[in-house]
Design brief:
Length: 168
C-alpha cells in the first residue's frame, strides 16, 4: 500500500511558512552523522518518528488553493484547530474563534475535525509503513507514526536511503 499523495505533511521551511514536506525525526544514538544528527553505528534501537502536523486538514476533502481550516469544539465554542497556508497567510491561526476567523477571511472554508477519518488514515499509513519495519506504533493524539528502523538500515542501504523511501 502506498501513502496517499494527498497526505503530504507540511513542515516549516525557508521560502514559505509551511512547505509540503514530511517532518521526520530519528533518535537512538549519539554523534553527528548522516544529516539526522545521529550515528547509525551501534546495537541500540533507532527510532524514526514521522509527524503529520496538518493531518486533521489533509484527511478531509477539499482543495488547498483557497483558505481552509479545521475546527474543534472547545467547550461551547468552536476554535480553529489547524489551517492551510492560504489561510495562515491571511492571519488565521490555531486557537482563533470561528467568528474572528471569518472577520479576517470572509471566504474561509471551515470543516469539522473528523477523528474517525483521522484514525482510519493513520491505520492505513501504519499498514503501509510495515514495508519498512515490523515495529510501528501510532500516536493518534499528535498524528504521528513511530518506527524502530535499526534492522531496516542494511536492507534499504542506510539512513539517508531509508529516509528517501519514506518520503516517496
Amino acid at each position: 500500500m502506498s501513502r496517499s499523495s494527498k497526505l503530504q505533511p507540511l513542515l516549516f521551511g525557508e521560502n514559505d511558512a509551511l512547505l509540503r514536506q514530511p517532518f521526520i525525526h530519528v533518535d537512538g544514538a549519539s554523534s553527528e552523522a548522516s544529516g539526522f544528527g545521529v550515528s547509525t553505528e551501534g546495537l541500540g534501537e533507532l527510532w524514526c518518528c514521522v509527524y503529520f502536523p496538518l493531518f486533521s486538514l489533509e484527511v478531509l476533502p477539499g482543495e488547498n488553493h483557497s483558505p481552509r481550516a479545521v475546527i474543534a469544539e472547545s467547550g461551547k465554542r468552536a476554535r480553529i484547530l489547524i489551517c492551510n497556508c492560504a489561510a495562515a497567510r491571511q492571519g488565521i491561526q490555531p486557537g482563533l474563534s470561528v467568528n474572528a476567523a471569518f472577520v479576517l477571511v470572509t471566504n474561509l472554508e471551515i470543516q469539522q475535525q473528523d477523528k474517525r477519518l483521522e484514525t482510519k488514515a493513520l491505520n492505513q499509513l501504519a499498514a503501509w509503513s510495515v514495508s519498512f519495519t515490523p515495529v510501528v506504533s501510532i500516536d493518534k493524539v499528535s498524528c504521528a507514526l513511530t518506527m524502530e528502523i535499526r534492522g531496516s538500515l542494511k536492507l534499504f542501504g542506510g539512513l539517508d536511503r531509508l529516509r528517501e523511501e519514506l518520503l516517496t
